[in-house]
Amino acid sequence: MGELADGYAAPNLGAFELGFLEGGVRVRRSLEACWGVRFERAAPVRPFRWPKGGKSFAGWYFCATTGGHIGYESWLERDRLILLDADSQVTGIASQPFWLHWHDGRRRRRHAPDYFVRLADGQGRVVDVRAVDRVDEAAAEVFAATERACRAVGWEFVRVGGADPVLMANMRWLSRYRRRRCLRQDVADLLLEVFSEPRPLRPGAAKAGDPLMVLPVLFHLLWCGTLVTDVASRLLGSDSVVHTTRGQ
């Protein structure tokens, strides 16, 4: 770790290169030449694999933010996708958008970050998902180099592990209602009126109509953040207090 830190103590654009797909063609360029590339639209630089008997679980997640499918290679990555998809500040997401190439002073290294995220203010964010107990010395070196590369071009870098179990259970449930087909505007308008003052979820839904018709719309509004409730400290239930966003 010491050699890596010494080698990249100051941002050095020339120390890194990116390999990515451009129009279906693999290209490799200096980091300096790539900072403005819209990596949130990039295709994955390597395929997702489903090895028989493997310990990880890969798949495709339909992202409401982008309107397309995004790949993941573990439950942790899938959960992070759900949280990113629900974040109103996120406008674009791509998985494994590029290979980061560098030399650590001993040998050539490369790393494909899990996600590139574009935020509403135009900021880029690179996200790596790895459980804390799986970050060994080699992985720590990779993440340190990735962070330095991101800093050099003004991107944010975050390494995340598993989310809080209660929060994640609630967000997995709400993600079932992320698609626009769950929205009925007439019902949504009633719900916004009903929950203009805080009230329990199920009684409030009943005031807006048949719960079988109303609840999918209510959950969609909670997913979108138009209605809010405590999803961080307790599981969603009939008595969860729901209200509109301040100023909505």
Termini gap: 49 Å
Radius of gyration: 21 Å
Instruction: Strand order, main sheet: write it out.
Output: 2-1-6-7
Mean pLDDT across all residues, rounded?
91
CATH architecture of the largest domain: 3-Layer(aba) Sandwich
Shape by Cα distribution: elongated
**If helices are DSSP runs of H or I spanning 4 or more residues, what is the number of helices?**
7
The percent of residues in helical segments reads 25-40%
Main sheet makeup: 4 strands, antiparallel
Number of domains: 2
Number of strands: 13
Structural class given helices, strands, pairing?
alpha+beta
**CATH top level label of the largest domain:** Alpha Beta
- What is the beta-strand fraction? 15-25%
Q: Say what the CATH topology of the largest domain is.
A: Trna Endonuclease, Chain: A, domain 1
**Spans where pLDDT lies below 50 across 5 or more residues:** 1-10
Q: Strand-and-helix sequence, N→C?
A: HEEEEHEEEEEHEHHEHHEE
Note the topology.
Elements (H helix, E strand, L loop, with lengths): L1 H6 L9 E6 L2 E6 L28 E5 L4 E5 L2 H12 L3 E6 L3 E5 L4 E4 L3 E5 L4 E6 L7 H17 L2 E5 L4 H11 L9 H10 L4 E2 H8 L2 H14 L2 E2 L12 E4 L4
Parallel strand pairs: 9-10
Antiparallel strand pairs: 1-2, 1-6, 3-4, 5-8, 6-7, 8-9, 11-13, 12-13
Concise synopsis of the structure shown:
This protein is α+β, with helices and mostly antiparallel strands and 248 residues long.
Write up this protein:
The chain is an alpha+beta fold. The protein folds into two domains: 2-160, Trna Endonuclease, Chain: A, domain 1, CATH 3.40.1350; 165-244, no CATH class. Helix content is 31%, strand content 25%. The protein has helices at 2-7, 75-86, 137-153, 165-175, 185-194, 201-208, 211-224; strands at residues 17-22, 25-30, 59-63, 68-72, 90-95, 99-103, 108-111, 115-119, 124-129, 156-160, 199-200, 227-228, 241-244. It has a four-stranded antiparallel β-sheet, covered by helices on one side. Strands 5-8-9-10 form a four-stranded mixed β-sheet, with helices on both faces. Strand 6 and strand 7 (108-111) form a beta hairpin. Helix 2 (75-86) packs across helix 4 (165-175), helix 5 (185-194) packs across helix 6 (201-208) and helix 6 crosses helix 7 (211-224).
